[in-house]
Amino acid sequence: MRILLVEDEPSLLKIIETRLKEEGYSIDAVSDGRQAQDFIDMAEYDCIILDIMIPIIDGLTLLRRMRQNKIFTPVLFLTAKDSVDDRVIGLDTGADDYLTKPFSFDELLARIRALLRRNQESRDIILSIDDLKLNSLTREVTRGEKSIELTSKEYSLLEYFLKNKNRVLTKHQIAEHVWSFDFEYNSNIVEVYVRYLRRKIDDGFGNKLIHTIRGGGYILKDKNEKADN
Fold it and tell me: N or C: less crowded end of the chain, CB within 10 Å?
């Protein structure tokens, strides 16, 4: 899961970023509204954690622009503005949740999980191809009758493949989604993790699902399916 974190207080930004990465999320962290706008324009996020009182473009204005542009990514306001009126304005602007500072990190995690769960419930909970299944609520992965244990990065990689099954994904596309913008792109790390994933979901099974596209990247594809353009 990929999250954009927008917070202008440097130490808090770093603390939240570090803790969320420890939980297995891919995080892009920025400190002002203009940077946030650029990141939103360049990438698709599963959730955005947004302070209201940020420089250049404030959080409320940024959220209004998102909703006007039909970007419905779940947004959690994380802010020191704690009056009832502030909450009403934030939610009426289009926020999906509102948490005031100071806050419990466990509560922040719970609210993020709830937003991601609600967002997934409006999509497919079970992602599958052939006899491979991923439950996006429980994070359980199975192939046939076999339960498959994945690391957080392997899970994110498989989830991205399943959401884009039958499509060729370049190594750069994979790196941008599974890792974050501050990740120093190196195609070798993508190759390494694809190899790890292949060992777990393909080795020992007759129908191989992850295929290498020469000069292009990778595709998750049932051998009986045609690739999308």
Answer: C
Backbone dihedral angles phi then psi of residue 145, each to the nearest 5 degrees: -95, 0
- The Cα 5–Cα 14 span in angstroms is 10
Residue 2: closest CA among 220, 204, 155, 201: 155
Q: What are phi and psi of 60, to 5 degrees?
A: -65, -45
Question: Is pLDDT larger for residue 73 or for residue 186?
Answer: 73
pLDDT of residue 113: 87
CA count, 13 A, side-chain hemisphere, 220: 22
Q: Identify whether the C-beta of residue 204 lies closer than 8 Å to the C-beta of residue 144.
A: no
Contact 55, 8 (CB under 8 A): yes
* 197, 157 Cβ separation under 8 angstroms: yes
